[in-house]
Amino acid sequence: MPGIHHVTAIAGNAARNLDFYTRVLGLRLVKKTVNFDDPGTYHLYFGDESGRPGTILTFFPWAHAARGRNGIGLAETTSFRVPDKSLDYWAHRFADKGVVHEAIARRFGQRVLAFKDPDGMSLALVGVAGAENGEAWTGGEVEADHAIRGFHGITLLIRKAERTAAILTGVLGFTQVAKEGSVTRFEAAGAVHGGVVDIHEEAGQEEGRMGRGSVHHIAFRAESDAEQAEMRLKLAETHRLQATEQMDRNYFRSIYFREPGGIIFEVATDQPGFAVDEPVERLGQDLKLPHFLEGRRTQIEARLPSLEVVS
What we know:
Blueprint: E1 4-11, H1 14-24, E2 28-35, E3 38-47, E4 56-61, E5 74-83, H2 87-97, E6 105-107, E7 110-116, E8 122-128, E9 151-158, H3 162-170, E10 174-180, E11 183-188, E12 196-201, E13 215-222, H4 225-239, E14 247-248, E15 253-258, E16 264-269, H5 297-303
Parallel strand pairs: 1-4, 5-8, 9-12, 13-16
Antiparallel strand pairs: 1-13, 2-3, 3-4, 5-9, 6-7, 7-8, 10-11, 11-12, 14-15, 15-16
């Protein structure tokens, strides 16, 4: 099944990040682990009840990270699916919670509510007809009828769309379906969650700067190791792009490459999933470490910041 697997972004304060995504947006903390390459930093995963592909937004919360700047070579906006009838509920909720947001607008025939998280990350809720019939995590503060139903998609801001579009359609399983001004829409057939990628082509924009509030990379789905290997081969043979060797991330296996527009793409397997090291009913409750870091648990826990919000 093609589509987005997860999106990984950079945050500042870890406790504030956790509070916003679980309490304000009503997502579930699916996994609490660390950055495997920087184990003094959390890696927090937010999504639906079981962390299905297409519902997961993850963060590296680096408390002292400089503020990022949206621009060329970065993901411009990350969007979630909600029932179309729920956008007014969310606009009122954002006003009550002091969330920076815009007026409801219409894009590609759908109503959209743009907003920002506490680190300035550009987000949006897209009203999708029939989304209320899909599953959602209802263990938080958000009423079940209005809860987020995974990703809608992601918008990429790049100078020239052609070569990036070729990766989306020739390797990642997307099809071009519409164009609105300088934005071209691609969809993954059959994908319920994370099935949309928009390319915003804007040659006059300044270069983006990765930092707090920006997307670090976007992961796309591979059903199996074999499918992932086939994608890697297509990247090399057809697009002359070299992906990394496969890396085991405990909950999926990944390869990485920088697409022609400058954005880091990942291809992640659907398996084994987030219940591989703890049951679904306990997801996100305990700090989970990969086996090669388990022997350093005491030191790692001592370095990690508190996740308690100080009022």
